[in-house]
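The data are set out underneath:

___
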Amino acid sequence: MHRFSRRLFLAALVTLVTLAVAATSPSWAADKLKVVATFTVLGDMVKNVGGEHVALTTLVGPDGDAHVYEPTPADARALAEADLVLVNGLGFEGWIDRLVKASGYKGPVVVASEGIALLRTEEDHGHGHDHGHGHHDEGEFDPHAWQDLVNGRLYVINIARALATADAARADDYRRRAAAYDHELVMLDRDIRSRLDGVPAERRKVITSHDAFQYFGRAYGIGFHAPVGLSTEDEPSAGEVAALIRQMRDEGIRSLFVDNITDARLVQQLAREAEAVIGGTLYSDSLSGADGPASTYLDMFRHNANEVVKAFTN
């Protein structure tokens, strides 16, 4: 056979074999479970439990505000192609039902906060330390449940169960990864508690931009106060701002923080009026970008705890 013809024959043979293998065996990418998570905290948990078995799309990106997010056509396409959708629930993603309907997605929508001891909203129940369990009405409870690492462990259980149900062949691996991740959450929780042990109760008071840290406060005995309510869409009245300034002066609250998804101007006003200093940025409803201090759920908690402890001990 002519040398040139032989080369063509071999090239064609390689192409045919490659196509045959591709037709009979799913590719590495196609073999992955397609999962959509609504925001970065949830997405990072999915990465830790799903690992290389999951092709993840996170709708609201780093430093994004899920309260006011406007879904895009690309989001609808991601849902249409998904095997599983994971949401926080509790009214946090007010747009998700419309997006699911618009996308035509018919698969499971799993609520990651299911089964958590919830805090009721301040609007409904004073300062909100009544707990609810199991099923609940959206809007009645504080949705920021991930701000307690004990709750975060329950999110991981729910995520691992959802992945194992959707992809039974890899169920053992999902459970193994979830157990390893759970151990990291437990160790971090212990570390934060030990660091706060020496801080007097009267110093454990914090002002933040919006009311996203009540679960953190319940977990670690910290009083969090905010001029803006559970949603960043809330608008405080002049009277509410004045009352908070009086409280800061009367109780000597000097620990102020801006959270990463809100406008800093209102906290800056509080700092000026009460002669206090803003301590830095806390991460509430979203992680930072990859180069930031809170690019994972674990890093977010380390960063927030470090900032709060520093403010209490200075």
Remarks:
- DSSP finds ten helices and eight strands in the chain.
